[in-house]
Specification:
Layout (H helix, E strand, L loop, with lengths): L8 E5 L13 H4 L1 H28 L4 H20 L22 E5 L13 H5 L1 H11 L2 E2 L2 E2 L2 H16 L4 H21 L48
Antiparallel strand pairs: 1-2, 3-4
Helix pairs in contact: 2-3, 5-7, 6-7
Length: 239
């Protein structure tokens, strides 16, 4: 369940240097198997989200197995985006996994919500989340093939050129890219009915959450997640 003082959706990332100067040019090919698998996973995600909609409407609860699967799809997508043209933040090939993969430099955790509002489920994804869609549409734009056409895609292109020229990823671009994806993932979780907490209109830049000591954030000098903090991913009761 969610822990007071911590956001229910937590996105953490670590710039995995050193990065190859030229590998980013062929990541469209290397990531292709993931995109093929994700196409099927996202189809299942949408179908199961409809199942979750009716379950919440009639019972007030998100089926735990459906929740875990949909969280896994979001995690997998975030890792692939971080590796490829969403961020270019690592050269470590993403695992074919729905699990948390705590050693990978991009992480996503969503607290299991327990009870959810039956009324909000009717208006979250199409009405309440609409302002976020409009703002994120400016930043992220559409997707042509594998690359965003918005500000995010332009920044990633600059980062790739910087890597080729200097072998360095500009830290300011990395912080902004992770912030944009953190915002988008929070909205995705809300629109997918996985939380009742309305996403903040706030661009939290950087690899760690604003409350960086909380669970799910990366230690500054360690490859894994922070060890301290409550086990906030467990449900509050039987699913």
């Amino acid at each position: 369940m969610a822990v007071p003082g911590y956001p229910p959706v937590r996105v953490s990332a670590r710039l995995d240097e050193p990065l190859s100067r030229w590998l980013w040019l062929v990541k469209w090919l290397l990531a292709l198997p993931h995109w093929i698998v994700l196409a099927f996973l996202w189809t299942a995600f949408l179908v199961l989200s409809v199942v979750a909609f009716f379950a919440i409407l009639f019972t007030g609860r998100y089926p735990r197995q459906v929740f875990d699967f949909n969280l896994g799809v979001l995690r997998w997508s975030w890792r692939v985006s971080f590796y490829s043209y969403g961020v270019l933040g690592t050269d470590r090939y993403p695992p074919f996994s729905l699990g948390p993969e705590p050693d990978y430099p991009a992480r996503l955790d969503i607290a299991y919500p327990g009870e959810l509002s039956r009324g909000l489920v009717l208006v979250k994804w199409w009405l309440l989340a609409l302002p976020h869609y409009l703002v994120l549409g400016v930043f992220l734009g559409g997707v042509r093939g594998t690359w965003s056409t918005g500000l995010s895609g332009l920044l990633v292109l600059f980062a790739g050129i910087a890597l080729a020229a200097t072998s360095r990823y500009p830290s300011g671009i990395f912080d902004l890219e992770v912030g944009l994806h953190r915002w988008a993932l929070r909205v995705a979780a809300y629109a997918a009915l996985m939380t009742d907490d309305y996403p903040p209109f706030r661009l939290e830049q950087g690899g760690s959450e604003a409350d960086g000591d909380g669970p799910g954030a990366f230690e500054a000098d360690a490859p894994g997640p922070a060890a301290s903090g409550p086990d906030w991913t467990k449900p509050s009761g039987p699913a």
